[in-house]
Amino acid sequence: MDFVITLGLGLFAGTLAGLLGIGGGIVMVPGMVLMLGLDQHTAQGISLGAMTVLSLSGCYVQIKQKNLKIPIVIWIAPVAVVFGLLGAYVAGKIESYTLGRLFGAFLLINGSQMLFRTVRKMRTSV
Amino acid sequence: MALSASATQASFSAKTFLTAAVIGAFGGFLGGLVGVGGGIIMVPLMVSYLRLTQHQAIATSLGVVLIVGTSGASVYLTRGDWDWLTVIGLAAGGIVGAYIGARAMARLSGDRLRLIFSIVMLCVGTKFLFFP
Question: Which helix (H) or strand (E) holds A21?
Answer without folding.
Answer: none
